[in-house]
Design goal:
With 208 residues, the chain is α+β, with helices and mostly antiparallel strands. It has a domain at 58-202: Ribbon (Umud Fragment, subunit A). It has two helices and twelve strands. The chain has helices at 28-56, 170-173; strands spanning 57-61, 76-80, 94-97, 108-114, 119-123, 126-129, 132-133, 147-151, 156-160, 176-177, 181-190, 196-197. The strands form two sheets. Strands 1, 2, 3, 4, 9, 10, 11 and 12 form an eight-stranded antiparallel β-sheet that branches. Strand 5 (119-123) and strand 6 (126-129) form a beta hairpin.
């Protein structure tokens, strides 16, 4: 009688079995499916930050002199598009907004002066809010025009350029609807020598 070879002992106490079955290879279509899925996942991860940036921040070119001396022609600013979803615009904020084509052919950038429900009047270059003189803590270019009293309606704002005598703004075409506001000017990015956050001194003082 021929002795049968003994199987090696299994330290776990369980006998292992060896098979001669060939290794299963996934079909080519399945391999391509995995590749395509991973490719789209990689692309998605790559472009997600771009879409997040675009939905929260916008680069805007300042065109013209209507915001001098605060902002100058051909300067670039970043606009914060998310803050006004968390809180209301405030007096003194510099904002970018849409206007009808008959007003301008591109978005405008101005400063919020009057809030909804307030009476705004301009007397020989001086602004009165609810009959109280507005003490502006930012520098403007002098002007002398007047505007009769107007009440800012619900969901509206009264905006002016800092270069008051040379600005296409609310004293010409009226109140700005809230839904037209794109966002708040946040930081200058060009030219590099002007780079920096919009200084807090640009905000107007509270009405007495």
């Amino acid at each position: 009688m021929i002795d049968q070879p003994k199987m090696p002992e299994d330290p776990t106490g369980k006998l292992s079995t060896l098979t001669n079955q060939p290794e299963k290879i996934p079909p080519r279509s399945a391999t391509w499916g995995v590749f395509i899925r991973e490719l789209f996942e990689s692309i998605g991860l790559a472009v997600l930050p771009f879409f997040v940036f675009q939905s929260t921040i916008q680069k805007t070119l300042v065109e013209g002199s209507s915001m001098e001396p605060t902002l100058h022609n051909h300067e670039y600013v970043l606009v914060d598009k998310i803050s006004y979803h968390l809180g209301a615009p405030q007096r003194g904020d510099v904002i970018v907004f849409h206007v009808p084509p008959e007003v301008a052919q591109a978005d405008l950038i101005k400063r919020i002066i009057g809030l909804q429900g307030e009476k705004v009047e301009i007397r020989q270059g001086k602004i009165y809010i609810n009959d109280q003189l507005l003490d502006s803590r930012y520098q403007i270019n002098a002007y002398t025009y007047s505007m009769p009293p107007e009440v800012v309606g619900p969901g509206q704002y009264f905006v002016l350029g800092d270069n008051r005598g040379n600005s296409n703004d609310s004293h010409i075409w009226g109140m700005l609807p809230r839904e037209n506001i794109v966002g708040k000017a946040w930081v200058k990015i060009w030219p590099l020598k002007e780079w920096g956050l919009m200084p807090a001194t640009l905000h107007a003082a509270a009405v007495p």
